Each structure stands twice: as structure tokens, then as C-alpha cells.
């Protein structure tokens, strides 16, 4: 049987509430790893942001159970209030229940969309801080990853969610299976390692630091809040979708002006689905690589493009808040958990 590293090389193309601000006092050097899961453990599924139907949750439910885990289904699954999975109070209460239930060992967010910002300050993380568990998701869930990393130093998993599980596992392509399997590998305690092709615009070098990041636009929106990431000496990864190039440029300038790009250990740029300009005559002429490198030209840390993370099929699970090593070479790159 092909081992995980060989399989990845082959498939990748190469060998709390406002009252809880005092919790920021945790040591920056003391990352907390929640207990890894074992067969039979309970994974809670809740929708703290966008809504999802009961039918659309079934592929994820079946796969999770096939992997040997038990599911606790949240009250927000199948519930809808406008674009979200219930009112703010319904979504807050459902997520709070998952946080406080010690039988739930991991919380898988059903999908992204919009809504976390509306409830983040009403969530009570005091029990979660004493009894950490894995929180899983991406896109709008970036707010949870950032808030938890800043205030508690507890690791979390940036990955696909329930709405990305293939409807028929047996007919899914290997890339789909690989990305979903990476979630279960992360939950089981497998040390993550990804090898990927180099981009000619990369800035070579090596870096070591805790991995943090997520959706660029979301990180920009909380950059001046008490949920903003602290990025000094961290490896930062960024991804986005459906944004104009000028909007990406503005978001990166915002991060730079906030000091979030100044003292990184390394920078990883994942998938960016760029929205075409409405008026070709007014097109923002810089490309993605140029937009990024312009912001970090006065910094000397390694930068890599085309990492398999983001709003795309190739969206591998990443352990936020965990020490990683990034190596950016001329012909190949790697990111691995230390």
C-alpha cells in the first residue's frame, strides 16, 4: 500500500466574548493541541454560518460514520433564516452546546457562507478553554480559527466542510478523496506533510513557525478587532474566491498597514479565484503574484504560491496553531508539521 507521503507526492505532481479578553495572557510559545480522535468518538456537526439542507449533509454523515466515528447532529442542520442556518440566537446556542458537551471531541462546521461575525462575541469559550476540542472548517470559519488562536492558543483544523463531501464516495475522483481523507488524518494525529510544485514567482527559503491563516477578505474584516490574528514569526497562509484583483490588492494593503505582514516567518498563497473586471478598459493590471510580492518586498521571508488550499477542489486540511516547517525551493516546495 502506498504510504501517505508517496501518495501526496504523486497526486500533487512531485516527490469568546468581550469579557474574556484576559485570556490573551496565554504564552505565545505554548500551543495547545486538543486530544486526537479514536474510533467511536463523537463528531458534532453544526452550521454556525450559512444554511444547509438535511439532504446535503448526508454524504458527510455517511463518510464520517464509515470512518468509525459517531455523529451528534446540531439543531441548525436543515434550519434556515435568510441565508443563515437560523437566527443568531439559534446558531449561537447550537454552537455553544457543541462547545460545552464533553462527549463531542470535534466540531465540524457544515459550511461557510456568512454569520460567525454576528455571534462570535456572544460565545462563551470558558469550558472550551479547559476542555479543548477540534473545530473544523474554512471560509467564514476563519473567524473562529483566528479568534481561538489569538485568545487561547488552541489548535484547529482548516479544511473542507460537509458541503464539499462527494455525493458518491465510490465515484469520487482521487483528489476529492485525498482532500477529505486529510481531514480524518488530521483528526487522528497524523503529522501532516505536503509536497507541491514550485511557482517561478516564489521567493525561496525556509521557515519554522506556527501555521495560521485562512480567507483573506475575512481576515481583513477582523484585522482591527480583538479577533485579529497575531502573525509575528508565524507562517501565514491566505486564500480567497470571487474577488476582483483590486479588492485583493486592497485587502493585502490593509493587512500590511495593520502590521500583519511585517514579521512573518513565511507566507503561503493558496487558491485565488479572481473575478473578472466588469469594465475591461479599467482592469487592474497587476497579476496575483505581483500584487502579493509588492506588499512584502521589504521583507526577507520565503513566499510560495499555488499551495493546495482554498475554495477549490484541491483544499487540503491544515492544522492551525501547530508548529510547521516551510521549505520553498527552486523546483519544489514542502510544508510539514514539525
Beta strands, count = 13
* Overall number of structural domains: 2
The H/E string reads: HEHEHEHEHEHEEHEHEHEEEE
Mean pLDDT: 92
The percent of residues in helical segments reads: 25-40%
Structural class: alpha/beta
- The total of helices stands at 9
Protein model, in words:
- The model is unreliable at 1-29 (pLDDT under 50).
- This protein is an alpha/beta fold and 338 residues long.
- A seven-stranded mixed sheet has the order 6-13-12-7-8-9-10. It has a six-stranded mixed sheet with strand order 2-1-3-4-5-11, sandwiched between helices.
- Helix 8 (245-257) packs parallel to helix 9.
- It folds into two domains: 11-187, Rossmann fold (3-Layer(aba) Sandwich); 192-337, Glucose Oxidase, domain 1 (3-Layer(bba) Sandwich), CATH 3.50.30.60.
- The chain is built from nine helices and 13 strands.
How would you describe this structure in keywords?
338 residues, alpha/beta, Rossmann fold, Glucose Oxidase, domain 1, 9 helices, 28% helix, 22% strand, globular, disordered N terminus
Helices and strands in order, then pairings?
Blueprint: H1 4-12, E1 42-46, H2 54-66, E2 70-73, H3 88-100, E3 104-109, H4 126-130, E4 134-137, H5 142-152, E5 156-158, H6 174-188, E6 193-197, E7 205-215, H7 216-221, E8 235-243, H8 245-257, E9 266-274, H9 288-295, E10 303-304, E11 318-320, E12 323-328, E13 332-337
Parallel strand pairs: 1-2, 1-3, 3-4, 4-5, 7-8, 8-9, 9-10
Antiparallel strand pairs: 5-11, 6-13, 7-12, 12-13
Summarize the structure.
This protein is an alpha/beta fold. The protein has helices spanning 4-12, 54-66, 88-100, 126-130, 142-152, 174-188, 216-221, 245-257, 288-295, and strands at 42-46, 70-73, 104-109, 134-137, 156-158, 193-197, 205-215, 235-243, 266-274, 303-304, 318-320, 323-328, 332-337.
Amino acid at each position: 500500500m502506498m504510504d501517505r507521503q508517496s501518495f501526496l507526492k504523486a497526486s500533487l505532481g512531485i516527490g469568546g466574548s468581550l469579557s474574556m479578553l484576559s485570556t490573551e495572557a496565554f504564552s505565545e510559545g505554548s500551543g495547545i493541541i486538543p486530544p486526537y480522535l479514536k474510533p467511536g468518538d463523537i463528531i458534532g456537526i453544526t452550521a454556525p454560518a450559512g444554511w444547509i439542507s438535511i439532504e446535503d449533509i448526508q454524504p458527510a454523515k455517511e463518510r464520517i460514520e464509515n470512518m468509525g466515528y459517531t455523529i451528534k447532529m446540531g439543531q441548525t442542520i436543515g434550519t434556515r433564516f435568510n441565508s443563515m442556518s437560523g437566527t443568531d440566537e439559534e446558531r449561537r446556542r447550537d454552537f455553544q452546546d457543541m462547545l460545552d458537551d464533553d462527549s463531542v471531541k470535534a466540531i465540524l462546521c457544515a459550511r461557510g457562507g456568512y454569520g460567525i461575525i454576528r455571534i462570535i462575541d456572544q460565545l462563551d469559550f470558558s469550558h472550551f478553554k479547559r476542555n479543548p476540542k477540534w473545530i473544523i472548517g474554512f471560509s467564514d470559519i476563519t473567524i473562529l480559527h483566528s479568534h481561538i488562536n489569538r485568545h487561547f492558543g488552541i489548535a484547529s483544523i482548516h479544511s473542507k466542510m460537509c458541503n464539499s463531501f462527494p455525493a458518491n464516495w465510490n465515484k469520487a475522483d482521487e483528489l476529492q478523496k485525498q482532500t477529505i481523507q486529510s481531514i480524518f488524518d488530521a483528526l487522528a494525529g497524523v503529522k501532516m506533510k505536503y509536497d507541491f510544485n514550485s511557482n517561478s514567482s516564489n521567493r525561496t527559503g525556509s521557515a519554522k513557525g506556527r501555521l495560521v491563516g485562512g480567507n483573506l477578505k475575512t481576515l481583513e474584516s477582523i484585522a482591527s478587532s480583538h479577533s485579529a490574528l497575531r502573525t509575528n514569526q508565524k507562517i501565514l497562509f491566505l486564500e480567497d474566491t470571487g474577488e476582483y484583483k483590486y479588492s485583493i490588492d486592497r485587502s493585502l494593503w490593509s493587512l500590511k498597514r495593520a502590521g500583519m505582514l511585517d514579521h512573518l516567518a513565511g507566507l503561503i498563497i493558496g487558491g485565488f479565484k479572481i473575478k473578472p473586471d466588469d469594465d475591461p478598459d479599467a482592469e487592474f493590471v497587476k497579476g496575483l503574484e505581483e500584487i502579493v510580492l509588492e506588499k512584502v518586498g521589504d521583507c526577507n521571508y520565503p513566499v510560495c504560491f499555488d499551495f493546495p488550499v482554498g475554495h477549490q477542489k484541491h483544499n487540503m486540511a491544515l492544522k492551525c496553531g501547530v508548529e510547521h516547517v516551510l521549505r520553498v525551493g527552486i523546483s519544489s516546495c514542502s510544508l510539514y508539521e514539525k
